[in-house]
Amino acid sequence: MHYPRFFGLMASLAVTLSAYSADSLLGAESVLQRIAGASAADRNAAPNELAVLKNALAEYQAASATLPPEAAAAGWLALFDRLARVPSELIYSQSYQDRTDIGALFQALPPPSAWDALADAIESRTARATSPRDLGLAALAAVLRGDAAGQETAASRLRAALQSDKKLEAYELQSLLEGVDGFAEAVAASSGEAARLAAFSSRLDQLEKPGGQSHGGMPWLEVPDLASFAPREQIDPLLRRLLRLDLKLQLWNTSRATRRALSEIALAHMDELKSPQWALVTDVEDVALYEAMAKRFPASSSTDDDQRQAMVTYLLGLVAAERTADAINLLFAPETRLGSRGLGYGATSVLAQLQQAGRGDAVVDFLRAALERDPTLHLWEEFIALAARQGLSGDSLDLLTQSLERPGLTPSES
To answer: Which of 63, 186, 239, 348 could form a disulfide with 31 if both were Cys (CB 3.0 to 4.6 A apart)?
Structure first.
């Protein structure tokens, strides 16, 4: 069983299977005996187990719509068991586009008219299941029945089984737990706002338990976009709990609304944070947040990518707030090395946006002060362009001329 692939597809199934009509496909006559017979005959004699599985799967797909529900269910489970006997190196030796794996089996599920029969068959074999493989099947049965409570129970049992498996490496456990979490959240997403919030709350419950924050050995957690489906009064308590975890929060898939909510809560409850969350500093409005976090965690490493990006954002916030002297001090501080590293294209874009938002004088003042102190900075293009938009082309030309006349400035620096 290739668990990450299985759980990932289960997450999709939880949403997509519910959209099918129970009457969209009809079974007619049984050809299961021929399929099962071929599989049994080839079980030990086939020179290529994968080729045999491909043939059996193709034959099942062609016939499943005509099979009685019980026969269709038995046929699919026979294919599922056969896949488990195929060596993983054979599975992954195929091209991704034409791979016969658990995804191919999910695509070959029998029609909705056979789902109850398949769920019955699965439940009869997994009633006392303890292995992740069988518990994964139990989760599938709950999905096929549209049983939200059963899906939540299956996710909980899966998580517990994985966490008790001492043979898994930390990175393997991390991947598997993320798959289970994805399944639980996808189930919740198909069940409405309240279920999605409950699923995330349950996930926090797990992380808040002793040892739970190791999260499979990986010190980070991807944050769901809670603000996209629930109001602040419902998500704020969950976000506050999230910020109390000693995990680095990843905000890849969050909206600005969720990030702003996290930033506001972090600023209001900075004393509750266990570790710095530099990724929350994403806006020029986050000056107070950066300063509070830097005070709370003064020993943070300035080599952290998130912290360096937060420093750049903070510097831009200082410029926007017309705190030019503070911005210059940060730019040239030895411990930050922002001046020597450059601010990056994103910062240049923000400076232009600030100018367009009516803060052009503050931007020009900052650029002028920076270049007066060190004319070798790669900020001349921005300074000349923004000064021109502010009607200060003469000032930029004067500074450029003065800089070129400074003693000790080499041709390469000028």
So the answer is: 63
